[in-house]
Design goal:
single chain; about 80 residues; Jelly Rolls; four-stranded antiparallel beta sheet
Length: about 80
Amino acid sequence: MNQYITETRHYYQTGWIETQCAALTFFNNGTGAVLVNNFPLAPGASLVIQAEEKDFTNQSYQAVFALGFVNDLIVIMKRYVNIEL
């Protein structure tokens, strides 16, 4: 049986997000738009990225916030504790 944990992080400024996880959700909890690798997320919008079972990504994502707004990008990551092949 594969075991995993979930990790939640908040990002408040433009920068890079390191993942190394099996699935992740970006949720814009701020008042202005945010770009995640040039994909626009309006306030209240989310983006879900999932790998196949037993796979994971180690991609870096760039978050760029619009100026003059309250920034809060919530990132929820599913990380495997162990993987049975």
